[in-house]
Amino acid sequence: MSLVSELRPVASGLRHDWSREEILALFALPLTELLHRAGTVHRQHFDPAEVQVSTLLSVKTGGCPEDCAYCPQAQRYHTGVDATKLMSTDAVLEKAKQAKAAGASRFCMGAAWRSPKDRDIPKVAEMIREVKALGLETCATLGMLSDTQAKALREAGLDYYNHNLDTAPEFYGEIIHTREYQDRLDTLAHVRDAGMKTCCGGIVGMGETREQRAGLLQALANLPAHPDSVPINRLVQVEGTPLAGTAALDPFEFVRMIAVARIMMPRSMVRLSAGRESMSDELQALCFAAGANSIFYGEKLLTTGNPDTERDMALFARLGLRAMHVVEAPNTVHADIVDAEPAFGAGSMGCGTGCGCAA
Ligand code: SAM
Ligand code: DTB
Ligand code: SF4
């Protein structure tokens, strides 16, 4: 019997008991077969023409005390990123309004903190309340959270919290030394307990092995609940960080990572996250075919570049993709996203029928 037929059939139920061998067997499938399986699972739960669109804003940049080897915002590396104070709510709101007008359905606020201080929470809570009042979904990534901080952010209207596992448990110690894997799991538990949706994924292309990529997906899928959103970042190599100069990952291996994530976490939004700026349109198209259904939209991630909005609009038009829109009824998992509107903002592109054309 071939390896392909020996694999367990893809079930529509959610599994939390993936073994490393099963995951590696998926990685080892012929790419055509892997894409077929991922595409089949994708269609069981989503419209494959729809892509959720988030915009990121760094509300507090640089000067971070942590030592994440990939990160341009760690104070100890000389990357040319200047440290800033927390932005004012008014300035954040201005950016959120622009993101909404451009067609984003979710606004994600990032801060280069190890964890927020208790005195920061009321300021961030104010930002969340006001961004939410614009009719956007809210997301934040602020580092480790205590249970009380998580509850306060939830009460302010925070829908999603992004906190990544980043890599497999056994590779983690080569990337980060200033906090433990368990610290991350604890923060995710506080976020879930507070009733927020989790956005949790990692980075590939950091010199890890395929087995370690499988280990990241195993850790994510075997969490008590699959993350609602799974960002798969391709390392953005920044001069001055320890990981600058790492051998580039084979693009097809990146596509495999997306496809296996889709199969293992069938109801999650799989986000084609950092690294898109240096990807060809063809590679991104393969990632969407592999089951990616979420992107960051806007010319900047936190400190590094993202594709121009014009390039993304043209790509969506060429691929016949549409941006998912949010109905302003908060806190229903995935059910708050419908495809009633044309792609990318009121009248900013397309014929208005939602067909995804650029007319
Ligand atoms: N400081 C907070 C934390 O670490 O949780 C929030 C911001 S941090 C920049 C959010 C995530 O961005 C990291 O967990 C990492 O996965 C991703 N990231 C940071 N630098 C990156 C890079 N150079 N390439 C790809 N992803 C990166
Ligand atoms: C995530 O997983 N990727 C985003 C978001 N969550 C916060 C951040 C990517 C950062 C890339 C490097 C930078 O722009 O500084
Ligand atoms: Fe700090 Fe987050 Fe960057 Fe790590 S990833 S150095 S915690 S900003």
Give the overall shape, derived from the CA principal axes: globular
- Portion of residues in beta strands equals 5-15%
Average pLDDT taken over every residue: 90
Give the topology string: H per helix, E per strand. Answer: HHHEHEHEHEHHEEHEHEHEHEEE
Q: Give the helix proportion (percent range).
A: 25-40%
Structural write-up:
The longest helix is centred in the N-terminal third of the chain and has 15 residues, at 31-45. It is built from twelve helices and twelve strands. Strand 6 (202-204), helix 9 (210-221) and strand 7 form a beta-alpha-beta unit. With 359 residues, the protein is an alpha/beta fold. The strands form two sheets. Strands 1, 2, 3, 4, 5, 6, 7, 8, 9 and 10 form a ten-stranded parallel β-sheet that branches. Strands 11-12 form a two-stranded antiparallel sheet. Residues 1-12 and 328-359 have low confidence and may be disordered. Helix 3 runs parallel beside helix 10 and helix 5 (121-133) runs parallel beside helix 6 (147-156). It has helices spanning 3-6, 20-27, 31-45, 89-102, 121-133, 147-156, 169-172, 181-193, 210-221, 251-264, 281-289, 309-319, and strands spanning 50-60, 106-111, 137-141, 160-162, 197-199, 202-204, 229-234, 269-272, 294-296, 322-323, 325-326, 337-338. The protein is globular, with a radius of gyration of 19 Å. Iron/sulfur cluster binds at residues 64, 66, 68, 71, 73-74, 112, 114, 143.
Task: Summarize this structure as a short list of keywords or feature phrases.
359 residues; alpha/beta; ten-stranded parallel beta sheet; two-stranded antiparallel ribbon; 12 helices; 12 strands; disordered N terminus; disordered C terminus; binds S-adenosylmethionine; binds 6-(5-methyl-2-OXO-imidazolidin-4-yl)-hexanoic acid; binds iron/sulfur cluster
